[in-house]
């Protein structure tokens, strides 16, 4: 029976820990996995533009011995030509897996139902599971563990926030989410993260007050406007600027490292000087996208 990865919400702590270990193993022993996808082809369907996601998947699949076919649904004029389920069913006739970066999670659900091959969520409006796995691989590498650590996310409650909550809870990492009023993470996802955290001993805290982030090991932020959101920056800058991640916030919280999934907007959600500082883990996160994704593909396709 084929398996998908649309979100980690239905995973167990044990399975998530094994996947994290696999990502680390693939990173440090790439030759041992160089033929995992030999003879296999993966379609990368992109509704949204991408730098890190496309390049990390394309090069990563090649390193596993496979081949990726890139489909830009906007430039290729595929949008609206046929129903999502028909597109997925057709792609499954040729490909061994579908990696999809889409606007709506509903599109992924249609793909999953129609395709007889694994579907991987490379980003949607609700989740970004590949980013979440890469980020906790980065935390693991930096601290030697995830259990008992604390990650404080500051900014807009979005798809990245949701996956950080879920994967972090599964890996025993305490979660703090600080957002401006009205920009909180989805309440249902927060509640589910708390249920998962109860299994690992982690805590989940949400707040509108920056003081909630005190004591965090890592401060994490993301862009204030998600890709595709055409809200003028001027309309939200006054709301979000007090939540900027900067040197003063790092000192106030005591956090030793800063993370951002990128693309980053220097001197808006995070200062440029902090991005370039010794406490920045941004490029390590970016590199780990490939290793985390390779672990996901190895898990889904090598059995």
TrEMBL record:
<dbReference type="InterPro" id="IPR006132">
    <property type="entry name" value="Asp/Orn_carbamoyltranf_P-bd"/>
</dbReference>
<feature type="domain" description="Aspartate/ornithine carbamoyltransferase carbamoyl-P binding">
    <location>
        <begin position="3"/>
        <end position="140"/>
    </location>
</feature>
<protein>
    <recommendedName>
        <fullName>Ornithine carbamoyltransferase</fullName>
        <ecNumber>2.1.3.3</ecNumber>
    </recommendedName>
</protein>
<feature type="domain" description="Aspartate/ornithine carbamoyltransferase Asp/Orn-binding">
    <location>
        <begin position="148"/>
        <end position="299"/>
    </location>
</feature>
<dbReference type="InterPro" id="IPR006130">
    <property type="entry name" value="Asp/Orn_carbamoylTrfase"/>
</dbReference>
<dbReference type="Pfam" id="PF02729">
    <property type="entry name" value="OTCace_N"/>
</dbReference>
<dbReference type="InterPro" id="IPR002292">
    <property type="entry name" value="Orn/put_carbamltrans"/>
</dbReference>
<dbReference type="InterPro" id="IPR006131">
    <property type="entry name" value="Asp_carbamoyltransf_Asp/Orn-bd"/>
</dbReference>
<comment type="similarity">
    <text>Belongs to the aspartate/ornithine carbamoyltransferase superfamily.</text>
</comment>
<keyword id="KW-0808">Transferase</keyword>
<dbReference type="Pfam" id="PF00185">
    <property type="entry name" value="OTCace"/>
</dbReference>
<dbReference type="InterPro" id="IPR036901">
    <property type="entry name" value="Asp/Orn_carbamoylTrfase_sf"/>
</dbReference>
<dbReference type="GO" id="GO:0004585">
    <property type="term" value="F:ornithine carbamoyltransferase activity"/>
</dbReference>
